Amino acid sequence: MRKSIATVSLSGMLPEKLEAAAAARFDGVEIFENDLLQFPGTPGEARRICADLGLRIEMFQPFRDFEGVAPDQLLRNLDRAERKFDVMEQLGTELLLVCANISADASSDLDLRAEQMALLAERAARRKLRIAFEALAWGGAVRTWRQVWDIVQRANRPNLGVALDSFHTLAIRDDWQGIKDIPGQRIFFMQLADAPWVNTDPLTHSRHYRSFPGQGEMDVTGFVGAVLDSGYNGPMSLEIFSDEVRAAPARSTALDAMRSLLWLEEQVRHLPSLKHPERTHGQLGRAVLLDPPPPPVLHGWAFVEFAVDGPTASRLREFLFLLGFCPIGRHRSKNVELLGQGDVRIVLNLEEDSFARGYFDQHGSSACAVALACDDAAAALARAEALGATRVEGQVGPNELTIPAVRAPDGSLVYFFDTHQGGSHGFEADFVLDAMPEGAAALDTCLGTGARIDHIAAVLPPGQLDSWVLFYRALLGLEPQPNTVLHDPYGIIRSRALEAPNRKVRYALNVSDRPGTVVGRTVGQFGGAGIHHIAIAVDDVVATVRQLRARGMPMLAIPANYYDDLGAKYGIEQATLAAWSELGVMLERSGEGEILHAYSTPFDNRFFFELIERRHGYQGYGAGNAPFRLAALAHWASRHGNPPPVNQHTTHDPLS
Amino acid sequence: MRKSIATVSLSGMLPEKLEAAAAARFDGVEIFENDLLQFPGTPGEARRICADLGLRIEMFQPFRDFEGVAPDQLLRNLDRAERKFDVMEQLGTELLLVCANISADASSDLDLRAEQMALLAERAARRKLRIAFEALAWGGAVRTWRQVWDIVQRANRPNLGVALDSFHTLAIRDDWQGIKDIPGQRIFFMQLADAPWVNTDPLTHSRHYRSFPGQGEMDVTGFVGAVLDSGYNGPMSLEIFSDEVRAAPARSTALDAMRSLLWLEEQVRHLPSLKHPERTHGQLGRAVLLDPPPPPVLHGWAFVEFAVDGPTASRLREFLFLLGFCPIGRHRSKNVELLGQGDVRIVLNLEEDSFARGYFDQHGSSACAVALACDDAAAALARAEALGATRVEGQVGPNELTIPAVRAPDGSLVYFFDTHQGGSHGFEADFVLDAMPEGAAALDTCLGTGARIDHIAAVLPPGQLDSWVLFYRALLGLEPQPNTVLHDPYGIIRSRALEAPNRKVRYALNVSDRPGTVVGRTVGQFGGAGIHHIAIAVDDVVATVRQLRARGMPMLAIPANYYDDLGAKYGIEQATLAAWSELGVMLERSGEGEILHAYSTPFDNRFFFELIERRHGYQGYGAGNAPFRLAALAHWASRHGNPPPVNQHTTHDPLS
User: Fold this and answer.
1) What chain B residue is nearest to A646 in terms of C-alpha separation?
2) Annotated binding residue at B305?
3) Which residue of A350, A358, B281, B620 is surrounded by the most CB atoms within 10 Å?
4) How close, in Å, is residue A522 to chain B by CA atoms?
5) Which residues of A touch B638 (CB under 8 A)?
6) Same domain, B222 and B321
């Protein structure tokens, strides 16, 4: 389908917006009037910029407060419309979005509204222009697509049709299935937006919280399916108002926007038609819907790769040894080391003049790549590229494996390792492996043979949560979980998890707007996203932590008061509490399930490991314990050289 | 009255919170349980810290999910309570806050709830502890103070009383006047919070948007009056949950918190009693309510002072000359210059080794002080100090005026100039004045003899809006106006105006969370708050701008498209539009009134001047034109060396 975006959905001045839309390969744009009014050039110049960029101007918008008014006002409104028609002629667009009049003064007489819309359509027809009429979710007498369609039918002018916006219908939980029965050629335009469910009024919801399809929680896919069932064959056009997106760079927003439409096309392709329930839209051949390979079946992480220089490698090696990791081997052609235990593999990349070193220089000691073990790496790569990711090719030595990779939004890499190449650990073929210790059947020094990565938590810079949610959802088919808020002693942290359907890959994404939180300090110090912790599932957390302690691994201390409360809350006996307290093992219960988990102290105030034991089907992340973990980390950081930044606000205005 | 604050209202770890509360001279604290659970010391150690700081532990809180449960659960809940009583004994506090059980399973039978609360009270009584029972605004069967009071009466235990929280009552617009009829000794505790009105559910409202009294929009004063009418003589205690406050430094939050209570005491003092409507609470001698001098009667700004070094002074002098300002004189003993026109006075402070130079070094070229002209400067100063402001004493030469000053939250100064000392310009006595040009009756080069400062707009760092609102409201008696959101091309700007009752002093405060906006760039570059623009009221904006243009003053250019829209919207004739367009004069209408205004280009990308002409009683700030002004400023800044910061997010993940 033709893809368009409203300029209001991108930050900056009009030329930046248009360049960003073109760079993301949009076919067209809606010109939002305020963007034009702020543009120092003429409408003709805006038209030329679009033409040069290969962008069609799909629509000019919005025109408000027109219909349902007294006769004298109608004349003034028609004059006003003529001025806008002038602008449209200069812009070279023939479609105007008119929003149903939401003024309290506007008449609720639909015949009057229809009559006046007919007049407007006639004026537009003289100029060969068309009107797309839209209902706003916070409208009074007119606020649904049915009412607008009713008015359009009463007005009965060929150049007057309806504009549909997924948000205006979904946000008020209005029925959208009936849209399939509108004749498709009477739908002049389809605007799309998603949003999280937020407890507020539709206007506030719309103005501040819209997001791109796939980033929110609404059924945009179903809505588009109904519109396609009508026979609509115009563009799909994004219209987002969001505090976050208004502040995000236009270029990256446009890339997210395009990814959301590509993902949406695929979702709709697999959706059964409302008119022909036995067939999907793909089978009906409706429009040209993207058909990428399906999301990869993921089996976990083959390895996590850390970018390090020599001194950092020494310290990190020591840190990992204390955690029970063993050296396994060295890369055949690169200065790269492999460590592991149980099913977990860690790669230390010491190559100079490499991607990893560049990442290290920019981000400090951190994970620069992960490799996902999957059934069909070639298909996973093809899907990622179809959904707008950039393929990255590394240097491959003779007889070495080619492991395809794409770039994540922060510049780190996501490898796809094909399990047909020797299982999840098949990549070890590129390494000269050390001899196993005598009698050792597997790497089971501490965490046990069953140890595997349960989830990875990442820290994102402010404003990038939705971007990453869409990246993982679209490329990998991970399902976003509800938004949550965690309490750090120095501010709130917004968090959202994504999970593979088989739960073998789970990410927890965290973002903090303020510099004092544990998360914010990581961003401030290292200028970007990164892996914050790696949670390893073990069979017996208590036994494991005991072993780690015996090896000298410092674990994160949890205050005794926490355990007193745990005892009061769950009636756990003193001896158990005392053991947990000594080890820093925390507990959370949810229904029948429970989680026991403990944390290592951090490496370079940057990342750490969690050990978790899920019991009785527990599927969460121990969020109830997050405030205590974050406080303990803040406490640890304050005593190890990373206190919260001093805000100059504190230096003035003492009362004393 | 005794003043207390809940530890949850302050950021950081428990010791930081307690130190901040003590530094702000609170008498006591409520210990929020999670703060204790995160504290690495014992409850006894927390008790000693409080004792050392002179803080009384007024209450331990909260205890939840207790009453209205099945018998077996009741036994478990009583056990849980005993564990918390242990903690209270160690803390040395005798009051526990119990929140009415909001669980969906909890019984709606108030007799059952009362019976179980009586059991809890009996257990507490054995330990000489008391229970304060509170309703939560999002409760189910129990969610109002009347229901809680009903249960307390049915339970009928002397150590069981009610806890009242202004938020829980005001947020659901419940009647609070009836509180006066509760016997005061049955009210065990009064918690206070304000909040802006936000369209959301009470729980979200409470968790994220609470603010200190005077910062929000609720009638906390009336609520406290009703509680005092009951005969309550316990502490007033603040309990705030706010995303902003969680991230703000505890020290400055505690100072704001104390200021809010001092201000509130004064408000209540002047409030008529509900029980004795002919008298105010002050006349009734209730508690010991603060009685500072009333807010000063303000006559405008005597002068605005800029901190400059030599080279900056040369450029700023030139900038001001182009704006029509004339040199008036030099300070008798300091390297300080005075410029003026009409009623406006600008001071350039070049003193080395001074407050101003220190401010300049920290903030760059910016206004470091303002002087407010008022009726009684000594009283204004006494009020400011009573409300927690710090008096600042400058160097005064022989026979020079002493102008009292206090420090604003960003370290800049607010002087109070007493108009009895020769009117608003009486401070000029400290200056050696230049001879007036021959025949000149007044300084009227350009802006006219009537030119005066209409309002001053300031830029605040993120998270400080409420702090400043309270500063101006409490010290100066300015009335806060509703919160507004402005659209900069690179993100949203939150804005709130405050106005003196006579409107001779008005401030517009602006804050942006993101670095790319015009406001955010100012903060990022200069590390703090500052005057963003000075709006000067003139009689005829069009004539004034013409004169400025003739002098060579570059005004901010507004795109022609804006004027086309203005014509379409208001039906203004072409010749007028053309004149305005050439001059950059903008128009906004509101009801009968209208504003014509224009902007200078900025000085050092830092501050600028606005010229405004208010017509027919217009009282706003032209907010509808703000997006165009902000876009024009962003456009100007991009071409003059201050583009938005490049976000690294843009450098990766290109689709192409």
Assistant:
1) B249
2) no
3) B281
4) 15
5) 13
6) no
* Chain CA centroid to CA B119, Å: 44
- Which tokens belong to B44? 């006894």
Q: Which of residues 268-307 of B touch A (CB under 8 A)?
A: none
Domain-terminating residue out of B254, B284, B314 = B284
Q: Which domain holds residue A211?
A: 3-284
Write out chain A residues lying below 8 Å of B557, CB-based.
40
Residue A434 and residue A431: Cα distance in Å, rounded? 9
Q: Flag if A11 and B388 touch (Cβ within 8 Å).
A: no
> Are B310 and B429 within one domain?
yes
Residue B26 has pLDDT above 80, yes or no: yes
Cis peptide before A645 (omega within 30 of 0): no
Exposed (0-12), middle (13-18) or buried (19+): which is A40, by Cβ within 10 Å? middle
Contact A299, A424 (CB under 8 A): yes
Structure tokens at B532: 């963003």
The whole-angstrom distance between B355's CA and the closest CA on chain A is: 13
Q: In the numeric block, which tokens belong to residue B597?
A: 């205004």
What is the torsional sign of CA B203, B204, B205, B210? positive
Number of domains in chain B: 3
Contact B306, B368 (CB under 8 A): yes
> B171 and B157 in one domain?
yes
Backbone angles phi, psi at A187, to 5 degrees: -90, 110
Q: Which two tokens stand for residue A255?
A: 């890339």
Question: Do B472 and B566 share a structural domain?
Answer: yes
Residue of B nearest to A557 (CA): B40
Which chain A residues touch B650 with a CB distance below 8 Å?
249, 251-252
Annotation-wise, does B533 bind a ligand? yes
Assigned token pair, A417: 């390792």
pLDDT digits over B448-489, tens only?
Answer: 888 999 999 999 988 899 999 999 999 999 999 999 999 999
Q: Which of B60, B526, B652 to mutate to test the interface with A (most CBs of A within 10 A)?
A: B652
Q: What is the pLDDT of residues B256-305, one digit of tens each?
A: 999 999 999 999 999 999 999 999 999 998 778 999 999 999 999 999 99
Q: What angle in degrees, to the nearest 10, is found between the helix axes of A541-551 and A574-583?
A: 50
Chain B residue at shortest CA distance from A650: B252
Q: Does B174 share its domain with B114?
A: yes
Q: What value, to the nearest 5°, has the Cα angle with vertex A64 and ends A63 and A68? A: 125
Question: Can you give the CATH number for the domain in which A508 is found?
Answer: 3.10.180.10
Quote the DSSP letter at residue B194.
B
SS3 state at A166: helix
Q: Name the nearest CA neighbour of B314 among B302, B331, B298, B327.
A: B327
Closest among B214, B219, B236, B341 to B609, alpha carbons compared: B341
Work out the number of other CB atoms within 10 angstroms of the CB of residue A94: 18
Token pair listed for A370: 């992960």
Per DSSP, B354 falls in state S
Contact B407 A652 (CB under 8 A): yes
The distance in angstroms from the start CA to the end CA of chain A is 67
Query: pLDDT above 90 covers what percent of chain A?
Result: 85
pLDDT band at A524 (very low <50, low <70, confident <90, very high): low
Report the DSSP beta bridge partners of residue A191.
Answer: A165, A237
Peptide bond into B62 cis (omega under 30): yes
Q: Using an 8 Å Cβ cutoff, are B120 and B82 in contact?
A: no
Together in a domain, B193 and B54: yes
How many whole angstroms separate alpha carbon A566 and alpha carbon A569? 5
B84 interaction partners in chain A (CB closer than 8 Å): 568
Say if the Cβ atoms of A464 and B649 lie within 8 Å.
yes
Distance CA(A592)–CA(A301), nearest Å, equals: 28
- Residue B647: closest C-alpha in chain A: A249
Give the containing element (helix H, strand E) for B584. Answer: none
